[in-house]
């Protein structure tokens, strides 16, 4: 069980206390990894490790106590995700041809149904959102960020974040209802 993250623990971590650094990692690693994985990074664990190396190296820069630490950590996570997305766009990954997984091969209706049941529809519904709505929902719901933290990370006002979240959740609900209705 992770120690409770408090301003005192943050202050101890700034002075190099290994127990305090461990408490920070244990409290934030799961949400950071979840955020990076949900954003589709190829190696979210490695990216999360990079995030914490940066966070620990720059603890002196953190202001605002534990809330400031969370915002700082997810700002770095967001930046790593953007960097990885840009790098992937510049240098696409080359993979060998595998006929067994070639999407151009038609599958049977039974195989398609089994694949839909196994994969779930949430990822598909998230992909249907506008990028800002998807980012807002990911930060608010997956990462557990507050409206103000999300607004700072995305460079938008709190009111914009509220609207993006509301519209994104309504769109998700509609898409999931349509998918469930098609089944």
TrEMBL record:
<dbReference type="InterPro" id="IPR013324">
    <property type="entry name" value="RNA_pol_sigma_r3/r4-like"/>
</dbReference>
<dbReference type="Pfam" id="PF04545">
    <property type="entry name" value="Sigma70_r4"/>
</dbReference>
<dbReference type="InterPro" id="IPR014284">
    <property type="entry name" value="RNA_pol_sigma-70_dom"/>
</dbReference>
<dbReference type="GO" id="GO:0000428">
    <property type="term" value="C:DNA-directed RNA polymerase complex"/>
</dbReference>
<keyword id="KW-0805">Transcription regulation</keyword>
<dbReference type="InterPro" id="IPR039425">
    <property type="entry name" value="RNA_pol_sigma-70-like"/>
</dbReference>
<protein>
    <submittedName>
        <fullName>DNA-directed RNA polymerase sigma-70 factor</fullName>
    </submittedName>
</protein>
<keyword id="KW-0731">Sigma factor</keyword>
<keyword id="KW-0804">Transcription</keyword>
<dbReference type="InterPro" id="IPR007630">
    <property type="entry name" value="RNA_pol_sigma70_r4"/>
</dbReference>
<comment type="similarity">
    <text>Belongs to the sigma-70 factor family. ECF subfamily.</text>
</comment>
<dbReference type="InterPro" id="IPR013325">
    <property type="entry name" value="RNA_pol_sigma_r2"/>
</dbReference>
<dbReference type="InterPro" id="IPR036388">
    <property type="entry name" value="WH-like_DNA-bd_sf"/>
</dbReference>
<keyword id="KW-0240">DNA-directed RNA polymerase</keyword>
<feature type="domain" description="RNA polymerase sigma-70 region 4">
    <location>
        <begin position="125"/>
        <end position="174"/>
    </location>
</feature>
